[in-house]
Design brief:
heterodimer, A: mainly alpha, ABC transporter involved in vitamin B12 uptake, BtuC, B: alpha/beta, three-stranded antiparallel β-sheet
Amino acid sequence: MLAMFDYEFMRNAFAAATIVALVAGSIGYFLVLRGETFAGHALAHVGFPGATGAVLIGISPFVGLSAFTAIAGIGISLIGERGQRDVAIGLVLTLSLGLGLLFLHFYTAYAGMASSLLFGNVLGINRETVWILLGMAVVTIVALGAISRPLLFASLQPELAEAKGVPIKPLSTFFMIIVALATAQAIQIVGVLLVFALMVAPAATALRLTRHFVAGIALSIGLAVAIVWASLTLAFFTDWPTSFWITALGGAAYGLSRLAEVIRR
Amino acid sequence: MSAIEFENVSITLGGRKILSGVSFAIEQGRFVGLLGPNGAGKTTLLRAILGLLKNDSGNIRILGAAPGRGNAAIGYIPQWRHTAAQQNFTGYELLLSAYAGNRWGLPIASLEDRKAVEASLERVGARELARRPLSEMSGGERQRLFIAQALTGKPELLLFDEPLISLDPAHQRSIVELVRDISREQNITVLFSAHEVNPLLRGIDEVLYLGHGKAAIGSVDEVVTGPVLSTLYDTPVQVFRIDGRIFVVAENGELDGHTHDHSDHTASESL
């Protein structure tokens, strides 16, 4: 089994997937807690035209992707809780995929890019990308750590937090920017369409299984890391896509947590 | 120095005048029932005390200072909006997350935080209760927990926004008696909003009645009378006292809690 580490691309894939799992597990926990998973899902889609548009004008797709998700994160937090938020987010989501399709149409040389952007291509990650991901991960996790206490308070008891002087709106915008950066990283592993599996499945499972915050966040991160490691290993031996395994194992973990809850009752 | 002092205060929200030239003062250590029909401005008044709303005119003094967000001397129970009810977290975890939740950094409670939370859980007799997840608690148990939460950190003033909603009479009574005892033994001022006056009768020192932008304050016997309420609501109001219970009857039947549906309460009160 250790033979898979003889390959440079497998070592890079494991490093990148581990870094992203740490980010997705911790940020996903707050995303699920706040009931903003759909917003996270939409952010990922906005990355698609960002990446394809960047390629079109000759800059790195990673830069375009991160910039677009960050702007969308600010936009979503500004929509706030006002009416028809779901509709607005859903329309932005489909418009993004449409725009991405248009940009790809203009840049036919990169036909293979569509598939890796949409579904991820973790086995194609190079050493340089691993370092970029590591840098972004440090920034995201430090930022989340700095706001995590008031964020937790504001997520659970917003009215009380407001009265206690927590700056609710700036905090929520700042969190969405963090989510956007995390999403841009997760896209490198599982692609635009499947970010939900990595950001939401481990966190939602952890929230069902624990009654304590710190244990919950630790479990969420642990599950995310375990899922990507298992998925890479399975992908290596079955030759099936890694992203498929991540969605399958994420779904299985969540399903088992619900089953465990039913049995406990 | 009064704990709460309103001097000719007017507040407008969304073009509607909620309070218009309201003046009253509440002494430290008093337990005051805040009453009035839906939309009379009970929540607005509490939010103004918390510094979440600006008054158009007049002067508000809270514990001798202008109102300001994040006043550590105020304990607050907002209206229950089910935010945390579905969660798996234990009551203890919820209180830890809220205590000092306005500090930056990681949500790791210090020993001091834990001691403060445990002390107030002890005071309301909720230590055992707080080990259970919120999703498995009854409404009365949750309110007991929220009283502990409001008490954490030695407040001088407690603001409770309709904590009796959807509780049965026995739980209403035990909550009111608990708040009365805490108020007396620690000399804490309590402003406690409610739909109707009866559940509060065993606890409160005074009532503050709101209606038509105006306020009337005093003992129950002084304020909950036909003449005072008729003037306040600008409509003929009759008050009957039967067996120690008080029945307030207005011509349009809209004054006290018996007549309207509780389910629409949150929407109308948050105006």
